[in-house]
Design goal:
Length: about 400
């Protein structure tokens, strides 16, 4: 049975509060066999206390052996099957900056790049052009006009911007134009399904006009297109769980993910400390809070074990402020593992902690991968975590007679 069909049948309304505190890329690996991971090395007294009072386990973001991107990883945590529901990067970027996609829209994440006189890419990110230089150029690209199609262009950050196409007959099945290499020209847009040929034709016109508009720029004189995507059709948290949900995130992508599943993105926090202020200010307004912490992932991707340990310790410092508010269910986990020794997302199950007033505790003493592998929750698909949270919050009725 579909998880959401079941949750719709069983969800109950009450006044309980659920907090999901996501340390992006939280899981890791030891630097040598038998050693400690970043999480196990870190001093995390607050999470360790809750580990003793709660129950531990490991979640599998997508499927055993699959290293997920952040999109599928978070969808799993939110209780959406990441194989059934696929979200393109363009849609994530657009919603993450607050652009309200309409049905039929096609969104594209675009990168400014530098090309030489022969049209070959010399820098895929235009020298990581700063936002104060790139934003006016993105706005200038609003001069692109294509008959029968509305074209929206919005700055994002540094070399990144978003394009949204609105018109009849557009579909998002188009391959990226970034060749992922220098010394070669940008690729031509190519449809990956028959229904997207009109989108290809529109993007070719966009690219031609964009090159003309940017021709005199020293760095950002061209662009590439990535993650061409339709607006996904996702049921909301209110529909499937009966929850009024809020997201407190710093980075646009995670705001976008939360928005696509019907969460309200609240506050304009730029730091973890500011996120805690936003949480307190909105505590009485929502049933469910998703709090995102990025830096356990970025430090892992940098291959920096010691820095990931430090960021994990920083992640731990916010736990007392969350618990002071009195959540009925608290979850600490990640959307995937990012071991610093691999400097990338990995397939390893993700350490997961659940604290609740009604949970059945286990014998685990601290929050770390080795303990989580022995925990009472076991190792299970992340898409089931929300149902476990709802049950512990008293928000699921009995199934069957």
């Amino acid at each position: 049975m579909d998880i959401h069909k079941l949750s719709r049948q069983l969800f109950l309304k009450n006044d309980s509060k659920i907090v999901m505190y996501v340390g992006d890329g939280l899981g890791g690996l030891p630097q040598q066999p038998g050693g400690k991971t970043e999480l196990e090395t870190a001093n995390t007294p607050n999470l360790d206390k809750l580990a003793r009072e709660g129950v531990l386990g490991c979640t599998i973001p997508v499927s055993p052996g699959i290293a997920p991107g952040s999109g599928p990883g978070h969808l799993g945590l939110f209780g959406y099957d990441p194989i059934k529901y696929v979200i393109g990067r363009g849609a994530l970027e657009a919603t993450g900056i607050g652009f309200r996609l309409e049905p039929g829209d096609v969104a594209i994440r675009a990168n400014f790049c530098t090309i030489d006189a022969d049209g070959n890419i010399t820098d895929r990110r235009a020298g990581r052009i700063p936002t104060d230089e790139s934003a006016p150029l993105a706005i200038k690209l609003r001069e692109v006009k294509i008959p029968g199609v509305e074209v929206f262009v919005e700055p994002v950050k540094e070399h990144r911007f978003v394009i949204v196409l609105r018109g009849k007959g557009l579909e998002g099945n188009v391959a990226d134009t970034d060749p992922q290499a220098t010394g070669v020209p940008p690729l031509e847009p190519v449809a990956t399904a028959a229904g997207s040929q009109k989108t290809v034709d529109v993007l070719k016109q966009f690219m031609k006009q964009a090159r003309q508009i940017l021709a005199d720029q020293p760095k950002a004189n061209c662009c590439t297109l990535r993650g061409v995507a339709d607006k996904p059709a996702l049921p909301s948290y209110e529909e499937v769980y009966g929850l009024k949900a809020a997201a407190i995130a710093v980075y646009p992508m995670y705001k976008g993910l939360a928005s696509l599943v019907g969460m309200d993105v609240v506050g304009e926090a730029k730091t973890l400390e500011e996120q805690m202020v936003v949480l307190k200010e909105n505590w009485d307004k929502y049933d469910f809070f998703f709090i995102h912490y990025k830096y356990t992932d970025s430090s892992g991707e940098d291959g920096n074990f010691d820095l990931k340990v430090q960021k994990t310790e920083h992640y731990d410092t916010a736990v007392p402020q969350i618990m002071e508010l009195g959540p009925d269910v608290f979850i600490a986990t990640g959307d995937h593992s990012t071991p610093s020794m691999l400097a990338s997302h990995s397939w390893h199950p993700v350490p997961t902690l659940l604290w609740a007033k009604n949970c059945r505790t286990d014998a685990c003493e601290s929050f770390g991968e080795s303990q989580c592998l022995r925990g009472g929750l076991g190792t299970f698909a992340a898409k089931h975590l929300m149902m476990v949270a709802l049950a512990n919050a008293g928000r699921l009725g009995k199934y069957g007679a």
